[in-house]
Design goal:
This protein is mostly beta strands. It folds into four domains: 41 residues, no CATH class; 98 residues, Sandwich (Immunoglobulin-like), CATH 2.60.40; 94 residues, Immunoglobulin-like; 30 residues, no CATH class. The chain contains one helix and 23 strands. A five-stranded mixed β-sheet has the order 4-10-9-6-7, with no helix packed on it. The chain has a four-stranded antiparallel β-sheet with strand order 15-14-17-18, with no helix packed on it. It has a three-stranded antiparallel β-sheet with strand order 3-5-8, with no helix packed on it. A hairpin with an 8-residue loop joins strand 9 and strand 10.
Length: 285
């Protein structure tokens, strides 16, 4: 492009200022310095590569064990999208690093999927989007923290039998999505429901087992274990039906056989309750 610039004031400018007039346009041939230059010769030019920026588009949460689709947009310093450029997404760090790569589309947006996220348990995990740059475009990157959740499974582990009127120790096992034990997590165990519910809380040990004791059991047969979750672990719950131990017996009064001369008399037990069972100790008069 050629521009003729005059220092003389010309009324045609309309503002009493000197102006330039475009006299000709010419497409620069390959090999010429400038934005239209071929990449293999751009390095020989004195022009600095354009600044770029990467803008992460989401999501802002990730779940261990799930696939994660991520996207970001690449643009220059004027906000103009840059196309056909590779972006690399890096989730986590060190030995837990997981990556995927995609090329920016006509809108400058690149999208790819990290399969089956497997990150150490934490409340968040870093994600870095990196553009390596070239002879025309400068390198750029962005790092964001994604909220991380780890699924859990809790299983009621006993006892299989309870006896009303007696202390009852309840246990449950808490594991993560890889079936690894979850240590140091509070677990609430409940016998019964509603107004009859009896609850205790235990903390999981190195095997993921939590135990607690209800001082005096007096409940229906349903038992539940609940982990409410926290910033790192997702909640989980389990329910089970346990067998209720009961007492059996029979109660009756005196019985007698009277051997009268010529007329023996047998008096059966009076009264007689017949066979009976109960889930709690009771007395009747």
């Amino acid at each position: 492009m050629f521009v003729v610039y005059s220092t003389q004031i010309d009324d045609r400018s309309g503002d009493s200022e000197p102006f330039g007039i475009i006299t000709a346009c010419h497409k620069l041939p390959p090999g010429t310095c400038g934005p239209m230059a071929a990449a293999d010769v751009q390095a020989q030019c004195g022009t600095e590569p354009l600044e770029t920026s990467t803008d992460y588009r989401g999501p802002d949460r990730v779940v261990n064990g799930d696939d994660l689709e991520v996207s970001a947009q690449l643009g220059d310093d004027l906000g103009i999208p840059k196309t056909a450029q590779p972006l690399t997404f890096r989730l986590g760090t060190g030995a837990a690093l997981q990556t995927c790569e995609a090329e920016a589309t006509s809108t400058g947006v690149a999208t790819c999927t990290i399969n089956e996220v497997t990150q150490p348990v934490a409340a968040s995990v870093p994600l870095t989007v990196d553009y390596a740059g070239n002879t025309v475009l400068q390198r750029s990157s962005i790092t964001v923290d994604l909220a991380l959740q780890t699924p859990t499974t809790i299983s009621f582990a006993g006892p299989a039998f309870i006896a009303n009127g007696e202390p009852t120790t309840l246990t449950a096992v808490l594991t993560d999505f890889r079936d690894h034990p979850v240590q140091g997590a509070p677990v609430t165990l409940t016998m019964g429901a509603g107004a009859n519910a009896q609850t205790c809380t235990g903390t999981t040990d190195t095997t993921g087992t939590a135990a607690c004791t209800v001082a005096v059991a007096s409940q229906p047969l349903n038992t539940a274990a609940v982990f409410v979750g926290d910033s790192a672990y997702a909640s989980s719950d389990d329910a089970a039906t346990v067998n209720l131990e009961y007492c059996t017996g029979r109660s009756f009064g005196l019985e007698a056989t009277i051997d009268l001369v010529g007329l023996p008399v047998d008096l059966s037990a009076q009264p007689d309750t017949g066979s009976a069972r109960t889930a709690a100790a009771t007395a009747t008069s």
